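[09:14] KT: can someone run the structure on this one? pasting the chain below
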Amino acid sequence: MALGTVLDPTGAEDACTEAGRLADIAATEAGLTRLRIAQVVAIAAWAEHHVVRSGEDACTLTERGLDTGLPVAGEGAPLISDFAVTELAATLGRSLDSGRHYVGQVVELAHRLPRTWRRVTAGEVATWKGLRIADLTRPLPAVAAAYVDRHLAPVAHGCSWAQIDRLLDAALTRFDPDAAQQRRRDAAERRRLDIHLDQAGTAGTVGIDGVLDTADALDLEAVIGTRARELADLGCADALDVRRSRALGDLARADQPLDLGAPDTRERPRTGRRARRSRTVVLHVHLTEAALTGGGAVARLEETRAPVTVDQVRAWCGSAGTILVRPVLDLAACAPVDAYEIPQRLHDQVRMRNTRCVFPHCTRHATRCDSDHVIPHAGGGSTCPCNLAPLCRGHHRAKTHGGWTYATQSPGTFIWRDPHGQAWLTDPIGTRPP
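[09:31] RB: done, structure tokens below
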């Protein structure tokens, strides 16, 4: 088909032709996937034939004329002949460093992440994703890499990189606490806040960037977000980003919105300064059996979904004025309400069940999504968790106006169809063919 036909501004191509084009693209991608899998399988088999069994002469720097066994992967993986890697790099058209890196990824994946390797070779996890996961696990101790493989392999196809990074962080904290503690100390020393006044000009703006303690960052986000909403309520027509920047200026000047509610009867300090608000810590505690028995004191902070240590939680709570303990939500419960409006408890339940937008391959966090009635309320759909799903604003519009449809297969699991009939299944793990 000529390019002019594809770009025909008249739009005369019918839906059947468009569906055929998409099918051709899908078939091409499937063929490329098979070739990528075949290549990593071949390299793994090649590596098995070039293992250096004795590590006496192994080193990371090769002396001229001496073939050594390179530790291309993590602890416990076999050493690979450096001369053989040189030949393979030339065959692949890669530099020597690039070839060593690629072989290391394959060896790491095949030997230290066997569960993930099986899913990659079965076509259930993208090859590039498996190789990148292997790249991230190479510095981990063998026991930590096995832990990551055990927990990640079943869900690797649907995990975002932020989720994978958090799992790696949790594994390092659990199995190498000394290294994790040193990393936290190093990170604390790198905290900073830069206001680039040297870049000020006639435009009237300056840039700010920094690195904060997680609890301080959450406090700052809460204050700025609240003030930005208050500015909108007071009639400010600026965009959200502009209101957020103004909110930071208000915070710097200690400006507060007018309190139009009940009078504030709290005693003020005589210095004229505003009394400092005590921190409120909201804990969504996710505990494993290991944490309860003391075998793995790692929790998860719901607001960032990042792993935290019990010591960190203890330190934050030590500076809190109020600690709120919320009841546990039964994510399998179904308690409908009669109204169209969705109560907060149902919002929370749906967003904890599906932590991301349920549109195929979308990674937008559910806290930034709308709670959508799968079957419209006006069409008889109920307001209950089994008929609700988080959709980001863009994909909500695609569903409402773009011809996309979806249906609930089971609570939290959905079948999507595009305007041409292609189908995807999405669930709390990710997206896959139905």
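[09:33] KT: thanks! DSSP finds 15 helices and 15 strands in the chain.
[09:34] RB: yep, looked fine to me
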